[in-house]
Amino acid sequence: MLDFEEVQKHNTKDDCWVVIHGKAYDVSKFIDEHPGGSAIILKYAGKDATKVFDPVHPPDTLEKYLGKEFHLGEVKMPEKTPKKEYDDDPDEPPSQEELQRRLNIANMPDLAQIYNLNDFEFVARYTMNKIAWAYYLSGCDDEITLRENHLAFHRVFFKPKVLVDVTNVDLRTKMLGTEVELPFYITATALGKLGHPEGERVLARSAGKQGVIQMIPTLASCLFDEIVDESLPDQTQWFQLYVNKDRKVCREIVEHAERRGMKGLFITVDAPQLGRREKDMRSKNFEDLSHVQGDDEEADRSQGAARAILSFIDTALQWSDLEWFRSITKMPLVLKGVQRIDDALKADEMGIDGIVLSNHGGRQLEFSPPPLELLIELMPILKKRGLKMEVYLDGGVRRATDVLKALCLGAKGVGIGRPFLYAMSTYGDEGVYKAIQVLRDEMIMCMRLMGATKISDLDESMIDVRRREVVEDKLFGKVYEELESPAFKLKL
Amino acid sequence: MLDFEEVQKHNTKDDCWVVIHGKAYDVSKFIDEHPGGSAIILKYAGKDATKVFDPVHPPDTLEKYLGKEFHLGEVKMPEKTPKKEYDDDPDEPPSQEELQRRLNIANMPDLAQIYNLNDFEFVARYTMNKIAWAYYLSGCDDEITLRENHLAFHRVFFKPKVLVDVTNVDLRTKMLGTEVELPFYITATALGKLGHPEGERVLARSAGKQGVIQMIPTLASCLFDEIVDESLPDQTQWFQLYVNKDRKVCREIVEHAERRGMKGLFITVDAPQLGRREKDMRSKNFEDLSHVQGDDEEADRSQGAARAILSFIDTALQWSDLEWFRSITKMPLVLKGVQRIDDALKADEMGIDGIVLSNHGGRQLEFSPPPLELLIELMPILKKRGLKMEVYLDGGVRRATDVLKALCLGAKGVGIGRPFLYAMSTYGDEGVYKAIQVLRDEMIMCMRLMGATKISDLDESMIDVRRREVVEDKLFGKVYEELESPAFKLKL
Amino acid sequence: MLDFEEVQKHNTKDDCWVVIHGKAYDVSKFIDEHPGGSAIILKYAGKDATKVFDPVHPPDTLEKYLGKEFHLGEVKMPEKTPKKEYDDDPDEPPSQEELQRRLNIANMPDLAQIYNLNDFEFVARYTMNKIAWAYYLSGCDDEITLRENHLAFHRVFFKPKVLVDVTNVDLRTKMLGTEVELPFYITATALGKLGHPEGERVLARSAGKQGVIQMIPTLASCLFDEIVDESLPDQTQWFQLYVNKDRKVCREIVEHAERRGMKGLFITVDAPQLGRREKDMRSKNFEDLSHVQGDDEEADRSQGAARAILSFIDTALQWSDLEWFRSITKMPLVLKGVQRIDDALKADEMGIDGIVLSNHGGRQLEFSPPPLELLIELMPILKKRGLKMEVYLDGGVRRATDVLKALCLGAKGVGIGRPFLYAMSTYGDEGVYKAIQVLRDEMIMCMRLMGATKISDLDESMIDVRRREVVEDKLFGKVYEELESPAFKLKL
Amino acid sequence: MLDFEEVQKHNTKDDCWVVIHGKAYDVSKFIDEHPGGSAIILKYAGKDATKVFDPVHPPDTLEKYLGKEFHLGEVKMPEKTPKKEYDDDPDEPPSQEELQRRLNIANMPDLAQIYNLNDFEFVARYTMNKIAWAYYLSGCDDEITLRENHLAFHRVFFKPKVLVDVTNVDLRTKMLGTEVELPFYITATALGKLGHPEGERVLARSAGKQGVIQMIPTLASCLFDEIVDESLPDQTQWFQLYVNKDRKVCREIVEHAERRGMKGLFITVDAPQLGRREKDMRSKNFEDLSHVQGDDEEADRSQGAARAILSFIDTALQWSDLEWFRSITKMPLVLKGVQRIDDALKADEMGIDGIVLSNHGGRQLEFSPPPLELLIELMPILKKRGLKMEVYLDGGVRRATDVLKALCLGAKGVGIGRPFLYAMSTYGDEGVYKAIQVLRDEMIMCMRLMGATKISDLDESMIDVRRREVVEDKLFGKVYEELESPAFKLKL
């Protein structure tokens, strides 16, 4: 049992110990190769780093990445004074901004005052810590794609039927062979603990309770097994995969996922390199944290970051690799991030089980087409060829009308990401439950008003896609946080 | 004769009396089934509830809904000190917002300063009580449909003729066989007493004086007969019907309407369920009042609200039911809320006398097509088939040019709703009279400047519908109150 | 010689004298028939009314409209204290707004700081008196047409030629047979004295100096002869005619105009009734002044205003009347205010010499097509039929590029109105001269950069009209004063 | 050796000496012919004018333009007190605005906080001196073309390919026969010293270090040879030529450029006259400095400015002159400023080596087509005819996506101007280096995400140009400084 006073002495770059969850580690050798940069480690040299370690690392990180020889064992930590709500460093008093945020948290609206998904986003914007908020909301470059994903839905109008018996509305449908209660799913998003201490487990629980599918991300902050363990016996989950260069590792992950009951393997194909997300990059202490997901460009240049977490992703992944995946798993195979008609057709020809039209929520390539626009163009072609695979879509969804439009156009289901993160980050389990509930209520109402009583009633005859002008929605327009430049401050 | 002191003792949920118009009622048994929720009743337990009862209940509500055994008889009310302008509860001093509103009322512009319908809306926005204002103006979801209804008129331009003798302009036309002075009508809107103590009777009087048709709503706050009684001998009125599940009740209503001289039966077909109107939902004390119209979703879930006023609406109403209506009345039959070409054609084929292209003023299904857009597409098809039924339209009309565009495109007449509510809520009878006058003056001027002297001069050769870009009008843009989220307050 | 003290006694409605230019008039009998209303006369009963009379009445008004028996002769006015800059009524101290305006005038930018026509408008907005400003700038209804007139130019792009010898640029062209220095003219606008004490004479002088045609309005505040007298010997002027119901009067006016050398008769065909110009109507003291031009609707209703100046306009003017004009004058005949292809073709067929595509500067019918859009559509048709008449256009022109676009599209010339009024109202003669100079400089530069050296080089091959989206210009966007409602003040 | 006290005596218009770089000159005879006006010279009569002379004159100006007889020789200048950071004239204390600017400079963001080219522009806006900033950013007229150049890129979307091996990305390409590292070049812009004391030399150095081509402008503030001397041995530079009326001078310049190793001759064809740049014209002390580039309109009118620097430009330059250029140089010949399909085709037919689709950065003819739009239309025609010449484009480029779109559409390379000026003016060499680096990083990322690994992979199949609506980018929208009128100040 180490003494904490001993630990505190090892507080230099060359002799650097840190405490995580009551255990000390010697990270002196590792410090230069830390994908998140050395600065953040040095800041906690000789200190307890648990608070900053947790949100951005899965619990098994040190086991996996740090040699056993650097595990120094348990530390006898000093008696803590009863935990204060905010555990500020006495040398670093909280900023005015942070104080305002705490005040905001104290004055959060009651969950009963939340009427739609934008409301969650509002509350999140003013109560989440800045780094987490910036990480979740950030899009690439000028965020044109981010906004277009959403606005594309506003170019589509309904052709509602009247005088239909709409007493009973049934929202159930099938996705990849699974019966689900609602025609949307919680899509994979990274670093859930940035928003909530229990991270992706929160999403798993609420999804389970309402019969909604959750797609578990490779880059979860919880362990994959922790998330699966959180699910109900008959709860359907899918697995999102970043393909590892090391195919052996990759195979292990896939086989493990299948063993744990995953009902779909979603291979991300739109992220051989991370997009430039400037809000995220600008957020305070960016250097300290944001490299957790790595940046393989940087990685290529600095040997020290060669082991960056994301650098495992195979930039050479090709169509021909897909056969191999077929050979190692029986899970339905879905390509997540298809952005072009040709590629969709090729996937169909190759017998892939499904595709997700997605541009990664506007976080990767600026001016990638909004998924809804792509869907409008793709489906008639696919139908003419005799649709075999299932088509999904994610990006920009905020209302039940958005979901219904995609379904009318031929999508099997719709992925929703950020809104659930915001619901989780603000109101936890209850927030996510309510978010699903809000969508469900909106959906029943809209189905009735469209003259549709079951998902199969929704088809292209219910929809008008001829309009080209966008009508902006005021709530989204207000919650959207515009990009800023550091020079802004010069004006003050 | 009961003593008021006695009444005051019955102020608990289990023993709950209230006074309405000087009569006491025991509502203990009813409290859980009150469509507007129990909270509002409890607030007035043992008190005089007339002030809050009146605006949202037709006068015969208690007669109809409360068993005779709970009618306790007249109450000797204490001498009132002379009525103060605002009868504030001493325990609940008026908010800053409310004080500002009262100041606004004291400084209302003279009616002579009102030049157009938007002006009424402005004055209403700053002088009406918040709940009433929110109820009237609210649209569904993000209010995109609400705004599009209006903006659609801005895509249409005229092709004015010059060198035509326009000395005499005649605005008379025929609707459903009735000669009218002006080619628009006051359409049905619920809860008129929220804006004016005399509610729909105000509209009836002004309509009568200027030869304009009023459509009487099922959900009026005045009794149907009160409104009819207010009309002039030869005044034309129509009746808007929410179809009751109980066809016997329904038949009685229809037959009564016909007996009282209604010249048209407008069956609402766009509201099997109420739309989500978030402004209304957010307005203070929403829980207390807004359920008056019910929310059958909620209703389905909570047995207590099973008798919610709106729950009588038949969600199973179908095309085949229309024959039955034919069999019980000789009034012309019109479908209000048609939103799709197919349905319009079907109505025509079935020999329905008319349809109203309408999306319920943007209050029901978001992304329902703007009625004017639908009209542009529908009329050429109808004309080719030999138009039999009459086509009306409502939603977004604010100027005579809007009305004239619809007429050029083939509409028989145009319904106007909210603007008359705002005129009524601000300036009462004089306001509504002036609103009609303003439209009349604008219309005469526009007809002259278009080179048209009678309604039949207006046809599609006078109109250009090729433009797709919207030009926003500044007054509407300013009077439109944007949606807000509760989290807004967090920023302060 | 009357004593002013005597005049002062006649200060009631029944016994009402006023002094104009040192002469007393008994207006008791006339007061109810004053087209501008009785209020303004009563305000000056027994007083010197010259100051308010002048800007809105041609000098011969009393001679023409008031019987000789009411001319009371000269008045011995009291010695005036040396004239103060602002002659405020001691009982009515100037408003805060007016004081600001005076400060603005004291701080007016130097004319050298004026770089374009928008600059004049800016200065005018902040230095002109409110009534004059409102009268000049006001458009009809929501001013959509006013703004569209201007914005329509922004949908047209050039196809500039390079490597052309552009050393010498010649801007001369011919309009209705007259050689002119510049391809635009100062179009007719009413009430010039509202902006400058010398009114239309200022425009006449500057036009003459630079070889630009001025179109003299029927409703000038100067006498027609005063304006003509101001012109140079060989200066070309045109005459704009509101056609009088009394054809004898009309004939006298036309014959007089021809005798005084007018080179074109522009018959206004877009104003059988004045449009609703709400800014003008709302401007302070509207009742007092704005009816000077009358409002024949009102006129029809109130016998008292039967002699309203504008009521002389013939609302029955028709195509068949044009022959008569041909018979009484040899001046080229032009229809001002054509707004529709059919009418343009009919004018051409009838052998009319020219038309002005115009919607009266957006002051008459809202949603009349922007003249430039009409030109784009009309010219190919006219050319195919073998263009005989000349086509002009006015409305929304602010830059030389606007003029050049119209010329490329086939217009013979372009009318510019408000900008010259603003230049005149702010900097007088020098302002108007500079305004013409600015346009000339811009035009030479643009011609060079387009690779054109003479007006006949400009044709449709230089222009691209396929674009539909408007690009807003920031200066116009800022100088444009948005419509406001009286209820705005309620918010304060 | 002259005494400075002697110089100080010659401080009148008729007897006017100035000191430049320690040498005295008698400019009395020259003062009226100074292209920049006499005011600025008089301000420095009898004084040291080096500070204001330097940024706007190449060092050899006096040698070239002032007769030897007026060179008075070296001056013994008084001992200077140690240079202060800002050398204010004691009689003219710095304005509030200027003090703010200095504060801004003191608080400039660290270069590490700069993430994109807009960031440089922001910093420049708040730290550059007003005259320099206005000169660089100004566009012509209402700056619609300036903004459209940029916004045009937002109408184009990508069609990204997935599942392509993008491990290695190669950005190298060939322009006019030279292999370059990156597919863009630093285009020619005038008066570099306004932004940085070393002017165009800064650009030369950074371009050289990263294998980017620099186009050297005729109107550089550095001497042509100074710039060339700054380049690395194998660095490629091009030369931009304003064609001199005096063909002998012109020939000397061209031959000198070729001798110094220029690899392309870019003849500017879009500037026979300078455009009206109102921001520049309005910027303080405009009269003093901005005429440096002359204004040949003015020049034509005032004999005094006959020798204005720009008056040398041949307004008669024609297609037939191009043969002559072929005859005097072997450098590839490129036309800079082509704005029309016809002219592009003509250039191709004449065997010109290349064209730059450009409207001079929106500084010349307002409503010249955005280069990207022109490219979209031109390339299919050129390809059908068998493309011979190379097509370049400049104007509005701010992101790597902009560059890649142009390349997909068939451009050989893209010119970038202002962003490098802003980078240079704020952070000097490091700024320009970083600006190139930012573009390079963005470009590698985008290529990967598009599924392209080399420039030749980019073709029209990767691009969607059907969209017509513009999506605005927030950073550009914020950094863009709107036009203002002097009357703005009246409101205060």
TrEMBL record, chains A, B, C, D:
Sequence ranges of Basic and acidic residues compositional bias: 77-86
Cofactor: heme b; FMN
Source organism, top-level taxon: Eukaryota
Keywords on record: Flavoprotein, FMN, Heme, Iron, Metal-binding, Mitochondrion, Oxidoreductase, Transit peptide, Transport
InterPro entries, A to Z: Aldolase_TIM, Cyt_B5-like_heme/steroid-bd, Cyt_B5-like_heme/steroid_sf, Cyt_B5_heme-BS, FMN-dep_DH, FMN_HAD, FMN_hydac_DH_AS, L-MDH/L-LDH_FMN-bd
GO molecular function terms attached to this record: heme binding; L-lactate dehydrogenase (cytochrome) activity; metal ion binding
Biological process according to GO: lactate metabolic process
Region described as Disordered: 77-97
Keyword Oxidoreductase listed: yes
Record GO cellular component, one term: mitochondrial intermembrane space
Domain (Cytochrome b5 heme-binding) ranges: 1-76
Location(s) in or outside the cell: Mitochondrion intermembrane space
Catalytic activity: (S)-lactate + 2 Fe(III)-[cytochrome c] = 2 Fe(II)-[cytochrome c] + pyruvate + 2 H(+)
SUPFAM superfamilies to which the protein is assigned, alphabetical: Cytochrome b5-like heme/steroid binding domain, FMN-linked oxidoreductases
Presence of keyword Lipid biosynthesis: no
Domain FMN hydroxy acid dehydrogenase: start-end pairs: 109-468
CDD domains hit by this protein: FCB2_FMN
Enzyme class: oxidoreductase
Main localization, broad class: mitochondrion
Coiled-coil portions: none
Subunit structure: Homotetramer.
Protein family according to the UniProt entry: In the N-terminal section; belongs to the cytochrome b5 family. Belongs to the cytochrome b5 family.
Protein's recorded name: L-lactate dehydrogenase (cytochrome)
Organism (species): Suhomyces tanzawaensis NRRL Y-17324
